């Protein structure tokens, strides 16, 4: 069956076509955002008809949701692997910061998709949800440190959200600059956070 400009359309299995559409969607959503992307452009980039996109994902929103979910899982898997290796609390926090910076550098399209606004009815608060999941992985590291220092371990949730949110925001800034190096950025961020945690004031009403 001929494609555009007289080119033969490549035949794919259903699984191959689905993967191709996911890859195309990731690229286009990263470039244009959800609202700026049309089903016509997605189909044209994949060299298929619009009904093919609807057949696999039910439309643009369905494709976007799967792309976001796939990127979230990809990044969470990186965090899980990095934190499972063990080490001191400071090493673990620095490794966690570096995981996000590595992802930004190596999977820039995926990061751009995650940091754009989600559509109404789509994958709600995708990036915020992702950051919350990452923060929960960091929370157990801080909780042990709080207990050891006589602080309320329940505060670890607040501080893990603050720490991961700081790294995520700096990561967006670093994406446009790529300077200083990501290892330096991770070290400085953890330096700021870790030194601040080491000097926490006693809880109100405490000794």
TrEMBL record:
Residues 38-57 bind DNA. GO terms for biological process: negative regulation of DNA-templated transcription. Residues 15-75 form the HTH tetR-type domain. InterPro entries: DNA-bd_HTH_TetR-type_CS, Homeodomain-like_sf, HTH-type_TetR-like_transc_reg, HTH_TetR, Tet_transcr_reg_TetR-rel_C_sf, TetR_C_32. Keywords: DNA-binding, Transcription, Transcription regulation. One of its GO terms (molecular function) is transcription cis-regulatory region binding. Pfam families: TetR_C_32, TetR_N. This is Transcriptional regulator, TetR family. It comes from Geodermatophilus obscurus (strain ATCC 25078 / DSM 43160 / JCM 3152 / CCUG 61914 / KCC A-0152 / KCTC 9177 / NBRC 13315 / NRRL B-3577 / G-20). The lineage of its organism: Bacteria, Bacillati, Actinomycetota, Actinomycetes, Geodermatophilales.
């Amino acid at each position: 069956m001929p494609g555009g400009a007289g080119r033969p359309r490549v035949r794919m299995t259903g699984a191959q076509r689905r993967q191709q559409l996911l890859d195309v969607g990731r690229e286009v959503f990263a470039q244009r955002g959800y609202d700026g992307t049309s089903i016509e452009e997605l189909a044209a980039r994949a060299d298929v008809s619009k009904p093919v996109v609807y057949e696999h994902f039910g439309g643009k929103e369905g494709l976007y949701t799967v792309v976001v979910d796939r990127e979230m899982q990809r990044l969470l898997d990186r965090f899980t692997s990095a934190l499972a290796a063990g080490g001191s609390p400071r090493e673990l926090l620095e490794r966690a910061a570096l995981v996000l910076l590595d992802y930004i550098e190596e999977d820039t399209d995926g990061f751009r998709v995650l940091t754009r606004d989600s559509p109404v009815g789509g994958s709600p608060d995708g990036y915020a949800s992702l950051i919350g999941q990452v923060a929960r992985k960091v929370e157990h590291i801080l909780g042990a440190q709080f207990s050891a220092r006589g602080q309320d371990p329940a505060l670890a949730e607040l501080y893990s959200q603050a720490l991961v949110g700081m790294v995520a925001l700096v990561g967006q800034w670093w994406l446009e600059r790529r300077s200083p190096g990501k290892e330096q950025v991770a070290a400085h961020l953890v330096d700021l956070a870790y030194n601040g945690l080491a000097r926490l004031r006693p809880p109100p009403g405490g000794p």
